[in-house]
Specification:
12 strands; 22 helices; Lambda Exonuclease, Chain A; two-stranded parallel sheet; single chain; PCRA, domain 4
């Protein structure tokens, strides 16, 4: 192919630019082929997505979020493929072909995009999310396995609780109550079992905390959080780890490694979590001293502490005031979406559509359901889209509708709701005759363009055709006219058709000479 491109460029200099593009493409192919032998499969795919901007490209298409989610799944499959010890692009492609032909690869569904998922920690294993909330940190660990009268261990044997009144040996009846009820041998089994339980709970917590890719929120609630922090803000010893009652005890102990020294030094100054920032910045003394600090390397005098507390309070008040009075400097940009539909941009300023409450699908009656005005307009619009380009009279339109209904495009109720009179007026209009005479007609044309503010605008153009080298744009509307003039209703869509015009001129390079809004409720076409 490279040699052919060079030969063509030498024979016809006019094709030199195209041949140069071909050579650049082939050079890229060679670079990626060499790269595939140097890096892992997941890294290679990521580089391809970045360098070709394919990930961004599919995101700009209709259903872009789902398309990007499918690419994310492909990267996850590549990661799993390499994690299993397998290598090579050829083997991965064969695996994906096999998965596609024989099983469901797990394509992303629209319901899973930009959604909140609630699940147990065990169910989340192997998954990742941008933002994760771990709730219920104060839920008590289960100790059922060590609370019974008999506990067992595969190596230590059996541990029994002893009732001194029924002890056979006199020595057992003379033991202290606590030791007699729970002998040392049983306590050894309990300690071993609690160690296993703590290890398992730690694994569960690790799984939960590593599900977040960007932000992790740890949620715990107690009746007296200040007292809990005062109690748990101490060294995280092996004993505390083993006998902790919940996840919050571990987290507080790890979060405040110096909490014990601070608490002892202040002789009763309670400590609580306050605000954001570095770990050391979140420790605040908020209660008065219960007595003078004695002993230790750190000694706080009451007067010095009171002065420090006043300064801290002033600093906190200033910080609160600064946050409450903050004004985002780019507030205007927040009112413009980075991605929007042409219809949404139009309705943002001039919403003229009749509001028709939507009936949820789960309360609709499958039999005898009466279509709403919006639904009748939708099926009429769909019939126009499916109608072959050609000349039709009333009988021809009815025959087409019957054929589409038999083919399953419409239900009986939907077919009865199609406004054949409006469609007949459309196909007999002068505008439609011009469409039939055009050498190029396109319907339901999707587009994605950037507007002057850099926002991505997406939409679907109902119909356009080329006439004398220029474009005639048509948009069908089912809007109810009621007491308004049709010209007024059509003019309200001028902004939307302006976006369509810019998109068509940018995509085709041809000028748009006419823009028409065809109101099916009148019916009639109006130039805007």
């Amino acid at each position: 192919l490279t040699a052919a491109a060079e030969d063509v460029s030498e024979e016809d200099p006019a094709d030199a630019a195209l041949c140069e593009k071909v050579r650049c493409f082939l050079k890229k192919i060679d670079e990626w082929r060499e790269l595939s032998g140097l890096v892992g499969l997941e890294t290679l795919l990521g580089r391809l997505f970045d360098e070709t901007r394919y990930y961004t490209y599919v995101g700009a298409m209709p259903g872009g979020a789902v398309r990007q989610a499918n690419l994310d799944i492909l990267l996850e499959k590549a990661h799993s493929y390499e994690a299993a010890g397998r290598r090579g692009l050829h083997g991965f492609i064969e695996l994906m072909d096999s998965v596609r032909d024989n099983t469901n690869m797990g394509a992303a569904q629209a319901a899973s995009v930009d959604a909140v998922r609630v699940m147990s920690i065990h169910k989340s294993k192997g998954l990742e999310f941008p933002i994760v909330f771990i709730c219920g940190l104060t839920g008590q660990f289960s100790r059922a396995s060590t609370s019974g009268a008999v506990i067992l261990d595969s190596s230590l044997g059996i541990g029994l609780k002893i009732d001194r009144g029924f002890a056979l040996l006199p020595a057992l009846r003379e033991l202290p109550p606590a030791l007699a009820k729970n002998p040392l041998f049983r306590r050894a089994i309990e300690a071993k079992d609690k160690s296993k339980q703590a290890a398992e709970e730690m694994r569960v917590l690790y799984v939960a905390m590593t599900r977040a890719r960007e932000r992790l929120f740890l949620i715990g609630a107690k009746k007296n959080m200040a007292a809990a922090i005062k109690k748990e803000a101490s060294a995280l010893t092996d004993y505390r780890i083993m006998y902790a009652a919940d996840y919050l005890s571990w987290i507080l102990g790890a979060y405040f490694p110096l909490g014990l020294n601070l608490k002892n030094a202040s002789n009763g100054v309670s400590v609580q979590l306050c605000g954001e920032g570095r770990r050391g910045d979140t420790l605040r003394a908020v209660y008065t001293l219960s007595g003078a600090a004695e002993g230790g390397d750190v000694r706080l005098k009451k007067t010095k502490f009171e002065r420090w507390k006043a300064e801290a309070k002033l600093t906190e008040h200033s910080a609160v005031d600064e946050r409450l009075s903050f004004r985002y400097p780019f507030a205007a940009d927040t009112e413009t979406a980075a991605k929007a539909s042409a219809t949404a941009l139009t309705y943002g300023t001039e919403h003229i559509e009749e509001y028709v409450p939507a009936v949820p699908l789960f309360i609709k009656n499958e039999e005898g359901h009466v279509l709403t005005g919006a639904e009748r307009g939708t099926v009429t619009h769909r019939f126009i889209h499916l109608l072959p380009i050609g000349s039709f009279d009333g009988d021809g339109l009815r025959a087409q509708l019957e054929s589409m209904t038999e083919a399953g495009f419409f239900s009986a109720e939907e077919a009865a709701a199609v406004d054949l009179y409006a469609v007949e007026r459309l196909v007999s209009s002068r505008l439609y005759s011009r469409l039939l005479a055009s050498p190029f007609v396109r319907r339901e044309q999707e587009f994605s363009v950037l507007d002057e503010n850099g926002a991505l605008v997406q939409g679907i153009i109902d119909c356009f055709f080329i006439e004398d080298g220029e474009i005639v744009l048509i948009d069908y509307k089912t809007t109810s006219v009621r007491n308004r003039e049709p010209e007024e209703v059509a003019a309200a869509y001028k902004g939307q058709l302006g976006l369509y015009q810019k998109a068509l001129e940018k995509l085709t390079g041809l000028p748009v000479k006419e823009r028409w809004v065809y109101l099916l409720a009148v019916p009639g076409g109006y130039r805007v």
